[in-house]
Amino acid sequence: MEKYLIPMVPGPVSVPREILNAGALDFGSADLEPEYVSLYLETERLLQEIMRTRSRVVIQTGEGMLGLWTAMKSTLRAGDRVLALSTGLFGEGFADMARSIGCETRLEAFGDDETLRDFERVERAVREFRPKMITMVQNETPSGTMNPVREVGEIKERLGVPLLCVDVVSGVGGTDVRVDEWKVDLALGGSQKCLSAPAAMSFLSVSEAAWEAVREVGYEGYEALAPFRTAAETGYFPYTPYWQGTAQLKRACELVVEEGVENCVARHERMARYCRERVREMDLELFPAEGATPSPTVTAVKVPAYTTWERLDRDLRTQGMAVGGNYGRLAGRVFRLGHMGSQANMNLLKEAMDILETVVHDI
């Protein structure tokens, strides 16, 4: 695989050397060594600070999708009602997952280029369907949009919905995430986006209401949450923990905290504004509709009518730059610039936008 000097994909992002080096460890079995428990607990504390929560944060070995399956299989039974709020492909994915478990599922789908703004519609859906769980994606990377969570949390609390499950995989560490304030019961994150660690670790905050659902459901599969309730205290993890991956995640979290969570969020917002300004100057069209909230971590751009995604991708790679394509109905129509984590760097972004401008001009 070629090495691209300008990586602008929307994750997994380029991993800084100091994060990679944090995994250069050679220890024994993590579930038998007290040093690993200390590492786990300190990483959990850092994640709590970044996610602004007092709830337990469970750390698992596996890419971010693991956390999504963990949350749903551990808290839902066949027949439970799930209301999936969707503004894109990943939001729809929640509905597919719920159906696969046997849940009665209602998909409340908004446009791919929209963000949640019609809260009367959301409230109406909750009143009519009376779900056990509401699911949503905070940062919809295929669409380059960011959804408000606070308002959905308020509806959840007011109408007595037991659980709110939110995918914050591409937001945590780069956007304002306030798990407790937003009344989120399960906030699902991954290591490979804004935290800039390898795609090897997932994590999720678990409220007391969610732990009660875990107890009631009693799921015992590989992804089960239940064993993690006491794993750090007893030293008995459900499988051999990934010591090196946890160490890399810890260092990634330390870098965010050292910069300051607010400063980190502000940096991502500056990069996103600059990126969108340059895109408009090139007479390219942003994908999010007018009035939608654009993502601070990824910018989605329509492939111009005078070319194809295949040619645009080839020409950019010839110049040593890689951006992200897309999925499903957005494939070939929308490409994405990932300015998250280590790639939320102004020097890198300026060079990337200069290359994009040159390529677009020469097509």
Q: Compute the gyration radius: what is it?
A: 20 Å
- Give the number of domains: 2
Spatial order of strands in the largest sheet: 2-10-9-8-5-3-4
Report the mean per-residue pLDDT as an integer. Answer: 96
Characterize the largest beta sheet: strand count, sense, and whether it forms a barrel: 7 strands, mixed
Distance between the termini: 25 Å
Q: In CATH, what is the homologous superfamily of the largest domain?
A: Type I PLP-dependent aspartate aminotransferase-like (Major domain)
Structural class: alpha/beta
Contiguous uncertain segments of 5+ residues: none
Principal-axes geometry comes out as globular
CATH structural class of the largest domain: Alpha Beta
Order of helices and strands: EHHEHEHEHEEEHEEEHHHHEHEEH
Q: Which architecture name of the largest domain does CATH use?
A: 3-Layer(aba) Sandwich
Count of runs of 4 or more consecutive helical residues: 12
What fraction strand?
Answer: 15-25%
Helix content: 40-55%
Say what the CATH topology of the largest domain is.
Aspartate Aminotransferase, domain 2
